[in-house]
Amino acid sequence: MSIKEKASEELLLEEAVLTQNEIVLFNDDVNTFDHVIETLIYACEHTAEQAEQCAILVHYKGKCTVKTGALKDLKPRCSMLLEAGLSAEIV
Q1: Which domains does the chain have, with CATH numbers?
Q2: Where is the Adaptor protein ClpS core domain (predicted)?
C-alpha cells in the first residue's frame, strides 16, 4: 500500500467519525408515551416499534439516542422534537 493511499484512507475514516452526531432524548414528567412515540415517528422517521422501544428506554434509563447522522440532517429533526415539547439535544 502506498503512502498516498494510506493517507487518503485515514482522511476518509476521520471524516466518517467526525460527521456522526446523535440526538439524545431525555425523560420528563410531562409527555405521554403516545405523544413521544408519535413525535419520534414523525420527526425521526422511526417505525412504530422503534419509537415505542425508544420511549421505554427514555422512561426507564432517563435518556436514549434516537437518531444518529450528519449534523445538517439532525438539526431540523431535533428542532421538531423540541417544538413538540420533548427534551432533546444533539451531541
Answers
A1: 20-90 (3.30.1390.10)
A2: 22-83
Question: Distance (Å, rounded) from C-alpha 16 to C-alpha 48?
Answer: 29
d(CA 27, CA 6): 44
Distance CA 82, CA 25 (A): 10
**Per-residue pLDDT reduced to its tens digit, 12-66:** 666 655 668 999 999 999 999 999 999 999 999 999 999 999 999 999 999 999 9
- Which grid cell sits at 18? 467526525
Q: In terms of DSSP H, where are the helices of 19-67?
A: 33-44, 48-61
Per-residue cell: 54: 425508544
